[in-house]
Amino acid sequence: MVNAGLISIALHAGLLTFVAEGPPRFDIEKSCAGLTAQNSGIPRPQQACREDESKAQTTLAGRWESYPAGARNRCVESAGLVGAPSYVQVLTCLEMAKPQ
User: Fold this and answer.
1) Spatial distance between the Cα atoms of 51 and 28, rounded to a whole number of angstroms
2) Is 15 in contact with 68 (CB distance < 8 Å)?
3) Mean pLDDT of the 48-65 span
4) What contacts 44, CB < 8 A, 6 or more positions away?
5) Can you tell me the distance from the alpha carbon of 67 to that of 20, in angstroms, rounded to the nearest whole number?
6) pLDDT at 34 over 90
7) Residue 42 DSSP class
8) For residue 2, pLDDT beyond 50
9) Is 82 helix (H, G, I), strand (E, B) or coil?
10) What's the rounded Cα separation, in Å, for the pair 25 and 1?
């Protein structure tokens, strides 16, 4: 029983370490797939999405260490709950979690 608990903790700690070491890596094409002018309301939805995702990825890379580890882990985990994860989702979550 004790060994199983230690493995679980080690695996959980490994996940936290992995996420906290650097910003996540997502597939921007998957994040933007399925967007159309009809469902997004913008004429070039996939191009605009790719640009937004790329900017958010760059911003996350520059600010990653300034966010608390718990918020980083929580935001990365929640970004993949519905559909493909998104840098914009993670950045928005982290910005909302920052103390004012």
Assistant:
1) 9
2) no
3) 95
4) 37
5) 10
6) no
7) S
8) no
9) coil
10) 35
The Cα 37–Cα 39 span in angstroms is 6
Please give the biggest Cα pair distance in the chain: 58
Q: Say what the pLDDT of residue 20 is.
A: 52
Q: Are 14 and 8 in contact (CB under 8 A)?
A: no
Closest listed residue to residue 75, CA positions, set 67, 84, 83: 67
- 63-76 tens-digit pLDDT: 999 999 999 999 99
d(CA 27, CA 57) in angstroms, rounded, equals 11
Amino acid type, 58: T
Task: Give pLDDT, residue 59.
Answer: 97
Helices (H), 1-100: 2-21, 28-32, 37-40, 45-63, 69-79, 87-97
Distance CA 23, CA 32 (A): 19
